[in-house]
Amino acid sequence: MLRRLGVGLAALVAVVGLVACTPASPAVPGGPSAPGETSEPGTPAEPVASKDVGVQLFQWTWDAIAAECPALGEAGYGWVLTSPPQEHILGDAWWTAYQPVSYRIDSRLGTREEFAAMTAACADAGVAIVADAVVNHMTGQDSSGVGWAGSRYDHYDYPGLWSDVEGHFHHCGLTENDDIQSYTSAVQVRTCELVNLADLATESEPVRARLREYLADLASLGIAGVRIDAAKHMTSADVEAITADLPEDLLVISEVIRGPQEPIRPEDYTDAGDVFEFAWGRDVAGIVQGGALRLALELGSYEGSATYLPSDAAWIFVDNHDTERGDQTLSYEDGQDYALANALMLAAEYGRPVVYSGYAFSDRDAGPVQDADGAVLDAACAPGVGPETADDDGSWVCQHRWPLIEGMVGWRAAVGPVGDGATTSVDGRVVTVGRGQRGWFAASGNLDATTGRYRTGLEPGLYCDVAAGPPTPEGECAGQAVEVDAEGFVEVTIPAKSAVALHVGARAAG
Ligand code: LM2
Ligand code: CA
Asked: What's the DSSP call for residue 271?
């Protein structure tokens, strides 16, 4: 079965008004990704109201996400990826969420009622919810304990749910302690334990049936999709079986970290739905740091680097909660380079983008700020967040509101996900992307400001440079207004390691 960003998610998240002035046109039938749709000469100079952009709100509570959704919808985000919602082990670290104790929707991020209220509030704002589903394993605790919602458990015994005597767990017997030791062995990766986490026998029908029940329960609470955590540690057939009963239009994204020389490849999972392409974020890091930005727009294309998922199955990201704690991708600490990488992701035609938004940390295990009982405090974004903000440990970085990132989300919502390949490379370091009458983007990898005169496909007039952020609710430009002359040319100065972005949803007054 094939699951792609379907009409369901598209319909749920489609048509809401875009920024300022211009009325949204109806959603593109069949979803927002028909190739060539946006750039043909003569296409109407109106935003397409594409809503394919996701944002991972890492460790945000359900209440905080519900409160953020109106702003997300307004900015052009289509969906939110949440942290895992099920009952988990106790402890301060963020990763307690990845050690399930039961499938009760009751965690330190919120209750079942709060989760349902979030999906409803976000749907009202035109924003869908995608939940992180931890289905490969249970806890990694060698002694028994009690979970967040009061359920008792032991490493291989979860009363009323899983037990060793009934054969619900793998004990691979292939390594000294049953832990995965080599990623070159597919059978180890699938049946041994990932860092001591009790590995579910996901090939067994009773296990699959109970996991289907869990996902059906989440669907009943209004989710529009699931991230399948640790999908590499199950077979693609397992993922297909576990998600088989979900509504056809529910988005399924498998997390399969691409590793060199590994026998298990992300491509193996496309029959179960979409897949995260980890190579994009790794490759864009060096490109942005080096400044030859043309390469970033070619990633995943014929001319681009070697192995990538097919575009229509791929979700890309600059970083996620795992990679921001590693050294293979950029993260908020890279400031302007990070913002620019996100802008390029949103302008790219390969895959579909997920923006990441977390909290500042210096200790990789440190959890989000919690109250005395361990409940996570509601996230909130300080005014003026951006690449130059100094972040104290625990403060919410709110990358999704950084002006360049938020402005480019609005740009993509207005121009749609793909164009007609009207990407031009001025000199390798300065690139422009034309999207017909709907939008134009230029980015520079130079360390000094770059001034030039460029041809756009835009109708003559004044446009807000949304690289400085989306227009205010009153329709005022956040930064400079740029004039497109009668021949369609602009004369602009692209700041160092930054961008200029114009679109029909953000025309300037005057
Ligand atoms: C994932 N995807 O495949 C998640 O994205 C990733 O964040 C999870 O690891 C992992 N797989 C399991 O779901 C995180 C975190 C680990 C942490 C695990 C389990 O990165 O550090 O492991 O969650 O909570 C921790 C300890 C580890 C210990 C384990 C079991 O760091 O030392 O292993 O708990 O107690 C003995
Ligand atoms: Ca497994």
From this structure: G
- Which residues form ligand 1's pocket by a CB distance below 6 Å? 95, 98-99, 134, 140, 194-197, 229-230, 255, 322
CA 344–ligand 1 middle distance (angstroms): 30
Alpha-carbon gap, residue 289 to 298, rounded angstroms? 16
Residue 19 has pLDDT above 70, yes or no: no
State the first-to-last Cα distance of the chain, in angstroms, to the nearest integer. Answer: 52
pLDDT at 45: 83
Give the closest residue (by CA) to ligand 1 atom 24: 95
Q: Of 92, 94, 98, 141, which is best to mutate to test ligand 1, by the most ligand atoms within 8 angstroms of its C-beta?
A: 98
Q: Per residue in 459-491, pLDDT tens? A: 999 999 999 999 998 999 999 999 999 999 999
pLDDT tens digits along 414-463: 999 887 666 677 788 999 999 999 999 999 999 999 999 999 999 999 99
Is the Cα torsion angle 149, 154, 155, 160 positive or negative in sign? negative
pTM, full prediction = 0.93
User: Distance from the CA of 180 to the center of ligand 2, in angstroms?
Assistant: 10
Q: Would you state the pLDDT for residue 50?
A: 86
Report the number of secondary-structure helices (H) and strands (E) in the chain: 10, 20
* Nearest bound ligand to the CA of residue 93: 1
Which residues are identified as catalytic? 229, 255
| Domain annotation for the chain: domains and CATH numbers | 17-50+421-510 (2.60.40.1180), 54-401 (3.20.20.80)
